[in-house]
Amino acid sequence: MEEPGKPPFKSRPSFRRRASEPSPSVPGGTYPVGETVSAKHLGYLFAHCRMPIHDIIARYPNRLNLSQVFYGLHLYAENKEAFDAELKQEAKFNLGDSLSDSSMRLPRVGLSSLVHVEEMFQSKCEADRRKANRDAEAKRLLIKPRPPEERRP
Asked: Where is this region: Disordered (predicted)?
C-alpha cells in the first residue's frame, strides 16, 4: 500500500533518521563541514595531548589531510580561550566528584553480618565435604576389586 505522491518504500533514497548534531558554543564549529572531527578536538590532540600533526593525520587517515589539520589548528589558535574553557568544562563534567555522592557508596557492614556470612560459608564448605565423602564411599562400594586370576601351568 503506497501513499499517493510518495515513491515506493524501496526506491526512497534513505529512510533512516539523521541524528541532530549539537551546535558547538565555540566559533569555528565542526571542521570540516559535515565531519565529526572538530577544531576543538584537533586543538586538544595537538596542544594538550602533545600529538604531532602527522600522528593526528594517521589517526584519521580517511577523514583529514594536512591542510585540513592546519586549518583546524588555525581555528583553535584563533579561539584558544573559548576552546580551552569548553575543554575544561567537559573535563570537569567527565571527572566529576561522583564517588563522594551518597548513591555511589557501598552499604555499611557491621561485624555481626560478617560473622554470619562466615558461618554460612563454613557450613556450605562442610556440606560440600560431606557430599564428596558420601560420593567417594558410594563409588568405592560399587566398584569391588576383582580377585587376582590364577595362573595356569
From this structure: 1-32, 126-153
